[in-house]
Amino acid sequence: MGTSSGGASVGKSQTKEVRGVALVKSCHAGSGEKAPALILTLVFKGEGGKGLREWPARLWEDPRGVGPSLSAGSLVLAEGTVVRHNQESQLRLTRITPLKASPEEIQAYIPQSPLSSGLGMARLDAFMESLSEPHLKMFGLELLADPEVRSLLEKAPAAKRNHHAVVGGLLEHTLEIMEMGDRIAPVLHLNRDLLLLGLLLHDLGKCWEISAQPGFAYTDDGRLLGHMFLGCDAIRKTASRVPNFPGILLKLLQHFILSHHGELAYGSPVLPATPEAMAVHMLDNLSGQIYAMRAAKGGEGDEWGYERNRGAQIWHKGSDPEALVALWRDRDVTNGQGAG
Ligand SMILES: [Fe+2]
Ligand SMILES: [Fe+2]
């Protein structure tokens, strides 16, 4: 049986009951005759109020007609059971009740990056100070001196879902790949200045594309223009404030933004045309993939998680050799195949 009002406890059992307060991350009506009435993503507090956990949820019938009153970023009391659907755990709701909540209460359900924004911004400043080509260095420092860019970059999520979809996630993701780029540049004989700037800029447009408010909704600019255009436009303005900034360098920097999805089919209008642009695409992809694997969860205590995007099973113990050896020793003993 489920939970206190502060969190939801759900586990392996396919009929586990859940009753808990949750934030509505997204909510829309199902379409078609056999579709659920409401398709939701809910965010619950973890056991003992620690951490946050997202759950896909479905309400198959909405006899009380609550659907229209639910909006992303509001709190609800969710009641239902956990079921397995397409290899992932899902909540089948029997009842969902809107709750009145203060902004502080709602804030407690908004996932945050573990990275301190102050430390993160200071690391970005240090990276830009370390650039050697004078125009590129001046450009990087000018960009980070922009108060609008700074305040947006401190809070922006890197995505609405999938990876680094938390407040401060864009900064965390950007620094993660800049740290990697700093290390691989000498190994692959890449231009460090260009690579670090390309990594910093690749998703900059997300500052204006996705709101950092509960629900991480796409902004009007985001829907109309997308993060690649918004990033290219922002850095054109920055470059115009750097005296005598060479036009060809601006194009090279815009190329990082336009090519970072790596393939035309994934929304990039051009393919990476320089080794540094290929490295930006690969490091961006690596950061997103690893994050999504770590975030793929099964039921509580499950060794295996399910990553919906790739349809892949993820073995969390596979990153822990000590636990693996202990686990295998126990299993071998249980199976009568003890070593030695
Ligand atoms: Fe992107
Ligand atoms: Fe990215």
TrEMBL record:
This protein's UniProt keywords: Hydrolase
TM region(s), chain numbering: none
Keyword Hydrolase: yes
Domain HD: from-to ranges: 170-289
GO biological process: rRNA 3'-end processing
One Pfam family it belongs to: HD
InterPro entries: HD_domain, YhaM_exoribonuc/phosphodiest
MF terms (GO), sorted A to Z: hydrolase activity
Protein's name according to its UniProt entry: Putative metal-dependent phosphohydrolase
Organism: Leptospirillum ferrooxidans (strain C2-3)
